[in-house]
Amino acid sequence: MGLADGDLAVVFGTLLAFSIFLYIVLDGFDLGIGICLPFAGDADERDRMLGTIGPFWDANETWLVLGVGILLVAFPAAHGAVLTAVYLPVSLMLLALIFRGVAFEMRLKVGSAEGRRRWEGVFVVGSLGAALAQGWILGRYVMGFAPGWGETAFAAISALGVTSAYVLVGASWIIWRTEGALQRRAVAWARGALLGAGVGLAAMSLATPLVLERIAAR
Question: Residue 11: its pLDDT value, please?
Answer without folding.
Answer: 87
